[in-house]
């Protein structure tokens, strides 16, 4: 505990602003583990509207990690500094995670212009890490041009990424199934760009055409044209077109109303976590086991 209290947060911020990857890694760990002083540190971070956030999301097996790996290469080639947060699913039993993105993106771990951090969801249901907002703010204090957040493919609840990213890319594959049913999912309502990955597979062209039809203004209730990009991420095909579409989207200024809505979503999420701070699954499990609880509704009234 004594070591934790001796963290020099101001010095750490100076090192982060200079781009020290060691300092960035250390600070992310300190914030993630709620070390003493992290709250005032976050509250006093400089406002940064220059660094833009790209969200990569989609169902499991769509090739999000491979696509992210290829996109990093495209951004680095454009002389950009990139930070990547890869969120992997946690086991609901031991809360461990495989963090397989470390393998897929191994090419970039020693690159001076790329910072990659793998995270586990730690039981979060929205496809993101429970401290994703705070960790993103730490990265925004560093001299990165873009932050890529690759989420767990968990389906409809993954819409949380829309409240965090300046541009949200939804990755699909030709085997996504019935397009009409797919479009009903909340995941499909958040996309700024759609990617049909593994476009060399059978029926990819048909899926692409049907998706374009489903995005007509009559269905999607928006006058904004949502790009649909075909890619083969494993061969890096279509990645320049995707990077171009992302850049075009990032140049579109968000309306004041949308900015306020996104900020209110972040504030609600942070307040919700703060109010629930003293309640966690392990504590509930211990009480339920100790007291042999059978009526969960009666049990939870204790916490009202």
TrEMBL record:
Gene3D superfamilies assigned: P-loop containing nucleotide triphosphate hydrolases
The keyword Transferase is assigned to this record: no
Keyword Transcription regulation: no
SMART domains named in the record: AAA
Record-annotated AAA+ ATPase domain positions: 50-225
Signal sequence, start to end: none
Taxonomy, superkingdom: Bacteria
Regions that span the bilayer: none
Keyword annotations from UniProtKB, A to Z: Chaperone, GTP-binding, Hydrolase, Nucleotide-binding
CDD domains for the chain: MMAA-like
PANTHER family in UniProt: LAO_AO TRANSPORT SYSTEM ATPASE (PTHR43087:SF1), LYSINE/ARGININE/ORNITHINE TRANSPORT SYSTEM KINASE (PTHR43087)
Family assignment from sequence similarity: Belongs to the SIMIBI class G3E GTPase family. ArgK/MeaB subfamily.
Name of protein: Methylmalonyl Co-A mutase-associated GTPase MeaB
Phylogenetic classification of the source organism: Bacteria, Pseudomonadati, Bacteroidota, Chitinophagia, Chitinophagales
